[in-house]
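Researcher: Structure prediction, please.
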Amino acid sequence: MSLFSAPFSPDREAALVTGAGNGIGRAVAQALVGEGVRTVFADAREETVRAAVATSPRPELAIPWVGDLAQPESCKALMQFAQSKLGLVTHFVHSASPPRREVDHVLAVDDATWRQMRAVNVDAGFQLARGLTRTLIAAQRPGSFLMLTSLHAETPRNLPHYSTSKAALAMLVKELAKSLGRFGIRVNALVPGAIAAGGFVADPALARHIPLGRLGKSDDLAPMALTVLSNTLSGYVTGAAFVVDGGLALTNWFDPPVFDDTSASPP
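Model: Predicted structure follows.
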């Protein structure tokens, strides 16, 4: 039997994917149900998550959940919902992230935007991972978590709320991986490049900086995501970051932001 013919065990494994209404989260969630894995599709917008479920390869395995993960009570509600629908959640993908605007540079981003970005990217990722970990340890079962970080965890993006939250999430992956490996729980990061979907509105001109010559698509991430999530294919991999960017990380294309007179004035 081919190593790739059964990367998951649908009778024993189930998944939770945040940000599953669009972009990379949607592509990964749909790929999981395509492999027969029952999956909760969690997102902040009902219309997008229901569309993602409806267009999945096997909609009967996809379960929608709608809520704002910037709110701590929503994280608890999501865990309870997922466990009520799936039983033990063995696979977790944290792709949710608020939309980002190019105008929110260091002198313009407001406190609410700063807090929301960190709450969804870092706090929700931590709370959900920790909650799911406790159930896996109690059941003495292995697990596999995948966090969507960013090239800008290491390279400035002119969006400090975004880049610093992704940097924190990248370190969270390492902290969790080191602490949880002894329980058979693997934690890794998927690092996208310029993917024209979700919270990133890609400028087509960016393709000139990409060695493979084009912007990425959400579906470019799904094969790597499933490979890393699979305990069959990647059972000895944890604490790692997998870059899927067409080679974009080989360049640094950002100039410093341009400040207008208003944003540069003291508060």
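Model: The beta strands are 14-18, 38-43, 62-66, 91-94, 143-148, 185-192, 241-244.
Researcher: Thanks, that helps.
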